[in-house]
Amino acid sequence: MWNLRRIVTKLLPSGERLGTGFVTTTTSPKILIVEDEADLVRTLEYNFRQAGFEVYTATLGREGLRIAAAKTPDLVLLDLMLPDLQGVEVCRLLKADPKTRATPVIILTARGEEVDRVVGFEIGADDYVTKPFSVRELVLRVRAVLRRGETSGRPAEVVKLGQLTIDSEAHRVHVEGREISLTALEFRLLRTLVQRRDRVQTRETLLNDVWGLNLNVETRTIDTHIKRLREKLGKAGSLIETVRGVGYRFGAAEETV
Ligand code: CA
């Protein structure tokens, strides 16, 4: 993914561009930081610019939503405690808007906000970082989440299983022709189960492959997501089978490609 253009962009001094032609074609990942602590925003902005990102910042939730809709960032860093809207609400609205639904969201949370961890995943956040955090580690985490998103486009194919249609590239799921609105995390969970259909996936495997290794997510969080996913899938929800004491399996449905 480190193509020449991005390397060129990265090598340029912070903020400088090669010219208008490059501004429009640059592949620098765009990141939106929604955080009300000015010092933290400055630190993050500086470090992500240095790391080759195009950075947008907002100190209010509503401002963040407006920028997200206008600039369609590749990823959003979202503080939970904002002066106007709660981060949880901002995340929910991002995931409700088709334009930003598939945009990964990393929640910035104060130490020990365990409740918020769970709530964050239930509203579709992709990862967490607990304050205070190492900025270097955060940059690595952001890259990991972006890489996860890139591989999600492959294979660029449409899988049809009975009444269920999954378009990996367009990030769209249909059941009996009706589009189902899934969060980025639900989509990844479904895609993982479908790619490995007929094979049992343990909760640990799903935690590693869907949520990412370095998270303190409880296994019951997976159960919550599976339950929500089944509900959203309606008739096709029964294809996700519970294997007691082990995990989950996407059942053998007739392929109708
Ligand atoms: Ca805050």
Overall description:
The protein has 257 residues and is an alpha/beta fold. The chain has 2 domains: 30-152, Rossmann fold (3-Layer(aba) Sandwich), CATH 3.40.50.2300; 158-256, Winged helix-like DNA-binding domain superfamily/Winged helix DNA-binding domain (Arc Repressor Mutant, subunit A, Orthogonal Bundle). It has 10 helices and 12 strands. The chain has a 5-stranded parallel beta sheet with strand order 2-1-3-4-5, with helices on both faces. Helix 4 (61-71) runs parallel beside helix 5 (87-96). It is globular, with a radius of gyration of 19 Å. The site of calcium ion has 5 residues, from loops.
Key features?
single chain; five-stranded parallel sheet; 10 helices; 257 residues; binds calcium ion; Arc Repressor Mutant, subunit A; alpha/beta; disordered N terminus; four-stranded antiparallel sheet; Rossmann fold
Q: Helix and strand layout, with pairings?
A:
Elements: H1 4-11, H2 20-25, E1 30-34, H3 38-50, E2 54-58, H4 61-71, E3 75-79, H5 87-96, E4 105-110, H6 114-122, E5 127-131, H7 135-151, E6 158-161, E7 164-167, E8 172-175, E9 178-180, H8 184-195, E10 201-202, H9 203-211, H10 219-233, E11 240-243, E12 247-250
Parallel strand pairs: 1-2, 1-3, 3-4, 4-5
Antiparallel strand pairs: 6-7, 7-8, 8-9, 10-12, 11-12
The structure holds calcium ion.
